[in-house]
Amino acid sequence: MSVFSKTVFRESAAEIEKLPADGGREVAFVGRSNAGKSSTINALTGIGRLAFVSKQPGRTQLINLFEVTPGHRIVDLPGYGYAKVAKDIKRDWGILLERYLQERQELAALVVIMDIRHPLTPLDIRLIEWIAPRGLPLHIVLSKADKLTRQQQAQVVREVTAALAPLAPLPVSVQALSSPKRLGLDTLASAVAGFLGIEEKAPVSSSELRAARRPASAPVPKRPPRRA
């Protein structure tokens, strides 16, 4: 069982000052409003609707904290780039996002969600360049990978990796992911667990599952000794 399967919602905050200042570790998920950020969090934890999923982009307007284990959290940040959100709301959550990324001491790494069909938009690049000076590890998740073939997925991963290479020595990793197909979840879980400093259990193989389900065989009775 994954360590993320027991993740629980902890709290939401509209101000940085309302977040717990306990010296814990946080991995924040951020991306364009329609990139599949909430779906990725739900798939990682295996808990449906843990992070609210809406057909209307731009619904996440608060910082939402989910506790994996005590002192270790994943964070759902407000999405960016949705044009139809009211300007005053967009301004407020833009300031909230900016302050969290620049000031939050508990932030250990950033997971940036991008639609694999439209990666590295100008807003994505601006975000990455802006956060780069903090030197935090970045894990790029190319979501909705099931929309492309395996060959196309690999090509996009190579292209994004090459495009982000100039950010070195900033640690950057790139992967493809499909939440519905559960493609790439083991890679994501391993990365996030590493950033949080917790141990992610290795997935159980199909042969191990079959062995676990197989009923134990009854002991073979010993034959009585033969009489002379």
Q: Can you tell me about this structure?
A:
It contains 6 helices and 7 strands, in the order ββαββαβαβαβαα. The protein has one domain (3-202): Rossmann fold (3-Layer(aba) Sandwich). The protein is an alpha/beta fold and 228 residues long. Strand 3 and strand 4 (72-76) form a beta hairpin. Strands 1-3-4-2-5-6-7 form a 7-stranded mixed β-sheet, with helices on both faces. The model is unreliable at 54-59, 83-90 and 204-221 (pLDDT under 50). The protein has helices spanning 37-45, 87-103, 122-131, 150-164, 185-196, 206-213, and strands spanning 8-13, 25-31, 63-69, 72-76, 107-115, 138-143, 172-176. The longest helix has 17 residues, at 87-103. It is 31% helix and 20% strand.
CATH class reads Alpha Beta
Helix content: 25-40%
Number of extended strands: 7
Number of domains: 1
Distance between the termini: 57 Å
What is the radius of gyration? 22 Å
Describe how the helices and strands are arranged.
Layout: E1 8-13, E2 25-31, H1 37-45, E3 63-69, E4 72-76, H2 87-103, E5 107-115, H3 122-131, E6 138-143, H4 150-164, E7 172-176, H5 185-196, H6 206-213
